[in-house]
Amino acid sequence: MDTSQHNLSTLFQQLGLSASNEEIDKFLTVHSLKPDAQLSEADFWNESQAEFLRVAVEEDADWAEVVDELDARLRH
Predict the structure, then answer these.
(1) Which residue among 30, 55, 66, 70 is least enclosed by CB atoms within 10 Å?
(2) Which InterPro entries match (predicted)?
(3) Residue 60 backbone zone (phi > 0: left; psi -120 to 50: alpha; other: beta)
(4) Is residue 1 part of a domain?
């Protein structure tokens, strides 16, 4: 059982991205999603990142809530 805390920092680590608050803020400034776009289909993910995000949402996995947070923040 995964008992680790899931937040944006740990999600970015899971995705193989820099996970400091500054790097997350930079990522969110540089990238955005159009209103009708699916998070996992964004062109800034590699194949494994996109698959992880897609599965997390489809299976309502432990990561789903923080993935939803990322999705929302990329739309603002």
Answers:
(1) 30
(2) DUF2789, DUF2789_sf
(3) left
(4) no
pLDDT in tens, 21-49: 999 999 999 999 998 999 999 999 999 99
> Whole-model pTM?
0.90
Total tally of structural domains belonging to the chain: 1
Residue with tokens 């990322």: 70
- Cα angle for residues 8, 2, 64 (degrees, 5° grid): 45
Whether pLDDT at 3 is above 70: no
Structure tokens, 67: 């993935």
In the predicted model, what is the mean pLDDT of the chain? 93
pLDDT digits (tens, 9 = 90+) for 44-55: 999 999 999 999
By residue count, the chain amounts to 76
DSSP 8-state class, residue 62: T
